[in-house]
């Protein structure tokens, strides 16, 4: 350990000033101290706090103007990312194993002792529950089945992007085949890690077919089984429709759409291209409506009275889908003059300074009617931090069996998986008083997170916008 010195506070280059009575970096070098070993000892002894201290050190590192040095820093950062990801993978897997072992010893949730662990991991990683589960599964394959590859990550020889390519090509294989490919990847007879991810994917697929040929697999039956259609929002303007179908169904669809395109092209006034004709045809066949006409379904649109009357252009909320322009919102409410439909308006009241919807209560155990609509407007998406999944359930923050009330204050909108995860052993949620609806989540690992309802932007009083600081090279201090 470094001994204290009686020297005054000093500063060397970009190094922060050292308080009096503490040894300086220059003094340690003069004594012949192994600085690298000292840093390793400190980080290891401090645990998570040591890693955060290391992050602080990286943040104080100035931007280098020299081109050669700048690229050296880029390479060093890539190595650091690989090393940290390997460490995160090991701790993620260790956490799940420890939790499962603990619950099995207690005889709790014996059929699924890992329940809730993926949600805990997702919160720690600031991602959705689905992404957290996906990443933790990938981490487990890396830790348990790819020993040489994870060592390559520790050495900075392979990136996480490359590892994900490997995992995607072996996840369906047996453990023995996974480990065989892990060995083959690191043979010196090829350069799969320097040839690019396409070549890497090709080699993994080649070895997988040799080790476990899918000769007996009925691919036609698999295509029939795996057929699907997905519709999901990609931004505030549009949705994406994607899916797979057996070959014969796909050919039939393609022929029908081609015929629709030819029919439309016979009309000289039709200026649509082939892609536009295709999606319009699918829409009209599925809904029985004319593309671009009025839609006889309930469409939730939230705006203030000034925007409705044209006196304001505050953005308009489509609960669960995000914000659209004021002009688009007024157009939706007005309907199509050529194909008019009756438009119903439902009024909701909000606090003028916070954008918080006014509370509502219910005597029922279930959230229904206006209370359900109210919660949907207020929460907009799944309330679990970082999730933003589509709302599937309205449930109590504090469960009814724990004397939780059926009120807006004790309610949260959740996606299906997050609503199930809150029932996991060690998962606790409690409302938090405040201007905006909030509740506290305590996960099985003992960490806490605050879930706060999003504001209805444009309805509350606008906050003062502070311009960002200009960028300057090197560390910035107050």
Describe the structure.
This protein is mainly alpha-helical and 478 residues long. The protein has five domains: 1-62, no CATH class; 67-211, no CATH class; 224-287, no CATH class; 296-345, no CATH class; 369-452, no CATH class. Helix content is 44%, strand content 9%. A three-stranded antiparallel β-sheet has the order 7-8-9, with no helix packed on it. A two-stranded antiparallel sheet has the order 1-2. A hairpin with a 5-residue loop joins strand 1 (228-233) and strand 2. The longest helix has 40 residues, at 67-106. Mean pLDDT is 79; it is low at 1-15, 359-363 and 459-478. Pfam families: DUF222. Residues 457-478 are annotated as: Disordered. This is DUF222 domain-containing protein.
Cα(first) to Cα(last) distance is 32 Å
H and E order: HHHHHHHHHHHEEHHHEEHHEEHEEE
Low-pLDDT residue intervals, each spanning 5 or more residues: 1-15, 359-363, 459-478
**Extended strand count:** 9
Q: What do the pLDDT scores average to?
A: 79
The biggest beta sheet, please? 3 strands, antiparallel
Spatial strand sequence of the major β-sheet:
7-8-9
**CA-based gyration radius:** 29 Å
Q: What is the percentage of strand-forming residues? A: 5-15%
The class by helix and strand makeup works out as mainly alpha
Portion of residues within helices? 40-55%
How many domain units?
5
Number of helices: 17
Structural shape: globular
Indicate the multimeric state: single chain
Domain HNH nuclease: 370-420
Protein name: DUF222 domain-containing protein
Pfam families: DUF222 (PF02720)
Region (Disordered): 457-478
